[in-house]
Amino acid sequence: MPNKTHFFSTICALMIATSVPLSSNAANATTVKNAPESEKVCAIYPHLKDSYWLSVNYGMVTEAEKQNITLKVLESGGYPNIDKQRAQLIACRDWGADAIILGTVSPTAFSQDLSRYTQDTPVFATVNHLIVDKAQRQHVKGVVGVDWYWMGHRVGKHLAEQHPKGSGVVDVAFLPGPESSGGTKPVILGFLEAVKHSDVNIVETLWADNDKELQRNLVQEVIENYPNLDYVVGSAVAIEAAISELRAQPHHSDIKLLSIYLSHGVYRGLLRNKVEFAPTDKMVEQGQLSIRQAVHYLRDEPYETDLAPKIEVLTPDSLDEQIIGESLSPSAFRPIFSVEEH
């Protein structure tokens, strides 16, 4: 398999030795014991526009309740909003957070000045890649998240296996999401690496924020511009929009859909055979792991500084209930922004 790109050089190199590491298996990061008094943890998400971060929220909320800590949740409204996220880091500090869990809006947003906003409050990166320079290393105490290169690679590998070289060219429109997102570039690199020796032909790559209307516009554009399109590959928001758009345009119903990550809408599409393939990086589990990581640190207990769930692949014929439970919040769950100790 190809080497990881420079976008995903391991952040473990940026960690200081604050603890004795446990097993590298994420499943071994279990319940924290010996809670003294309630710790205050502040979590910041890049947005809550899709069910990906809703599921991360569910994981954090349930684990915060289990660990009996106080949790405050903020969301930045989208990947362009670096200034808003900076202000939210200050707000977490002013609130008295003992630790901050950060889903950054950009890998390099705080590479040289993280401590300007957090001061001495320990930071734990979640989901999105966080790059910090040597001077900022001491402030990042842990990270949870998969290498999104491999999310893209899994999707590309699936397509390449379906359409090997010489089998006949298929046209693909690629709608990976916001261009500034931390995961978008590695997803593209992984996807391109996986399909480069196949008959997969990418006719267009278009970016937009994870907004349903923006993604719907892109779907409409590629359907109109490429009447013989075979596949749309994209973010969960794009694929959810494509499901609706293809239902409204039955003459395009032969276009196949692949998502680069899982959401509730993509899951329903898999159930109804409207979506062919989606990998999952287990968002609920990531939320749980981030809370445990922060609490272990605050309680001066050993913990693993770099945790990543195993990427699993889902198809209409392969929908494991346990994997779904580790990935998606319950359908009735709505965002929770505050958890108090009990």
TrEMBL record:
Primary residence: other
Signal peptide residues are: 1-29
Q: Where in the cell is it found?
A: Cell envelope
Location of the Periplasmic binding protein/LacI sugar binding domain: 39-296
- Tell me yes or no: is Signal among this UniProt entry's keywords: yes
Q: Where are the transmembrane segments?
A: none
Keyword terms, alphabetized: Signal
* InterPro entries referenced in this protein's UniProt entry, alphabetically: Peripla_BP/Lac1_sug-bd_dom, Peripla_BP_I, TMAO_TorT
Which Gene Ontology CC terms are recorded? cell envelope
This protein's record includes keyword Coiled coil = no
Q: Spell out the family assignment given in the record's similarity comment.
A: Belongs to the bacterial solute-binding protein 2 family.
Q: What is this protein called?
A: TMAO reductase system periplasmic protein TorT
Species for this entry: Vibrio chaetopteri
User: Gene encoding it?
Assistant: torT
